[in-house]
Model the fold of this input.
Amino acid sequence: MIGTLLYLIASRPDLYFTICMCARYQAWTTKKHLHAVQRIFWYLRGTVNQGLWYLKDSSISLAAFADVDHAGCQDTHRSTSGSMQFMGDRLVSWSSKRQKSAAISSTEAEYIALSGYCAQVFWMRSQLTDYGLGFNKIPIYCDNKSTIALCCNNV
Done:
């Protein structure tokens, strides 16, 4: 069941976090986990016509959004990072994953996440530059003021 759902996340970013969370517990499934997967299928039944839709006349500007839940995993106390990259108003890339190390503070967790997302945005910019699209400044939005201050420090 999880394999089928993992296939769907290529076109349904609204399911990404939930399906990945269920996949974490695939090795030791309980009735509670099975019920969560059933609820995903019920949700899918009611939202069959949802998905990604791209029009030709979209604007060509890049923007990224990032967020982290500090120590959100109850088993390992590691944070889960999430990001979305938009081209104009169209979602083109998204991710949600548990960080490899446990962060001491929310600032550290956000900083770890932002470093990876900056690499993703730079890669997207280099690919789009190959197609003749140039970008001077690409905003990356983050909700942690301490992390923003840390990123702006040119030391």
Notes: The longest strand covers residues 90-98. The chain has a mean pLDDT of 92.
